[in-house]
Amino acid sequence: MRKAMTWLAAGGAFVLVMAACTPGGDDNGDDGDGEAGGELVWAIGGAEAQPGGVHQQVAELWSEQNPDNPIRIELLPEEADQQREQQALELQAEGSGFDVLGVDVIWTGEYSENGWVESLEDVRAEIEEASLPGAFESATWGGELWAAPYNTNAGFLYYRTDLVEEPPTTWADLCQVGVAAAEAAGIQPFIGQGAQYEGFVVNWLEYYWSAGGELYNEDQTEVLFDTELAAQVTQFMADAIAQGCYAPGFNTAQEEPARNEFQQGNVVFMRNWPYVYGLVNEDTGSPANGNFDIAPLPTVTGEGTISALGGFNNAVSAFSDNKDAAIDFVTWAATDPEPQTLLATEASVPPTMESVYEDLSDDPVMALLGEVLPDAKPRPPAPQWNEISVEMQRALHPAVNGQGDIQSAVESVRDFLEGTIE
């Protein structure tokens, strides 16, 4: 069965900017019981953690309101995999340099099992009442709350309204329409996140899920990985590369290179997160400015939509010397309308506070999120997810790029998943 799926990618390397860690503890005026005042350190990465980004604005807002416990951002790398690595180095050493941890929704189980984060059960009721159900669930493990929802995420299809009449509802149609429109305009059809990192796994899963596939049953006691379906999806991606549906450089592209390709007018379609909307909308020099719109991601069947549930939550380090203030901060960032609205209005970063969506229903990004988020699927929050992801990257990335046998690749993934069941 032939299908056409696409994601293009522009190659490019991220420049990782890191600040030196400033340990907490006595330097912050704390006596070691976790209750004193002093500066908090928030370890988080990504574009919005950069100077001027919305996470910096949230930090400034908290600091203005809480001068005895100001917070500063410890800037981590752009890529989530590298953010986790830097946090893990500090936490494995039981270092107190980080008070608040910006944690990807897939790290909850691992951080909890490793004893790296504080339980937030004492503030559970307040946080649960304010949060979207899916976002709240992503912050729990073993029935206990280990992080406070901060921002959620779902993938969008970005498309050029001056080049196509309406967004496609199947991946096959996307390739067909994209190739024709790209040839007429002298550009490329599609870009997504095809580099060998967590984003590739997210992109692959969105195809696989949209074809009806699953990884595990609901309580992760049984592997449901369908090797036949997985092989079809992987072949589809390989064909899309070979047939020119994916832009050159797809296999090295992450979020920002993909955004740059779309923003520079080099592609017809793009899969990316909501934050891109505001950046393209503000760039009056972009060929896409005023000529693009957003839609749900296509599916294999054309029925409904599916997206990987993304986002970051805030956890309190088990080794922080200022835990009480850190818990206050993560609770505030999850339940106060002011920081949650900032995320939405300043950066098109999807908040986790349910009431904010009602207040911003006229915003196109918030409106589409309201349509997409109920069907978004979380990656399994298993403690082994990092190892699972690495294995999927190792096996599937070469297969998609014509450098490995597809059937062997999907069987390898199935075997690895079986090994995670106790």
TrEMBL record:
One of its GO terms (cellular component) is ATP-binding cassette (ABC) transporter complex, substrate-binding subunit-containing. It comes from the Bacteria. CDD domains: PBP2_TMBP. InterPro entries: SBP. Keywords: Signal, Transport. One of its GO terms (molecular function) is maltose binding. Residues 1-19 form the signal peptide. It holds the Pfam family SBP_bac_1. One of its GO terms (biological process) is maltodextrin transmembrane transport. PROSITE patterns: PROKAR_LIPOPROTEIN. Coiled coil: none annotated. PANTHER family: MALTOSE-BINDING PERIPLASMIC PROTEIN (PTHR30061), MALTOSE_MALTODEXTRIN-BINDING PERIPLASMIC PROTEIN (PTHR30061:SF50). Belongs to the bacterial solute-binding protein 1 family. This is ABC transporter substrate-binding protein. It comes from Jiangella aurantiaca. The lineage of its organism: Bacteria, Bacillati, Actinomycetota, Actinomycetes, Jiangellales.
